[in-house]
Specification:
The chain is an all-alpha fold. It is 65% helix and 0% strand.
């Protein structure tokens, strides 16, 4: 199970952002799927990750302004 931090102690530390944690998880998951030998739609996976990360970043930006 992945743990995504939703609270931060330092606003300057990008590694604590949910978008960064999710991106790292997805990078590992992509490698795992490649290594299984089972075909999957890599382009669709990457597009979904990009969409989700964009939404997380938008929420982070909104949180930072509040």
């Amino acid at each position: 199970m992945i743990r995504i931090p939703f609270s931060r102690t330092s606003k300057d530390d990008d590694s604590d952002k949910p978008s960064v944690a999710f991106s790292e998880y997805c990078r590992d998951e992509l490698e795992r799927r490649r290594d299984t030998g089972v075909g999957f739609d890599e382009a669709r996976f990457e597009a979904a990750v990009e969409l989700a990360v964009g939404r997380l970043q938008a929420m982070e930006d909104k949180e930072g302004k509040a």
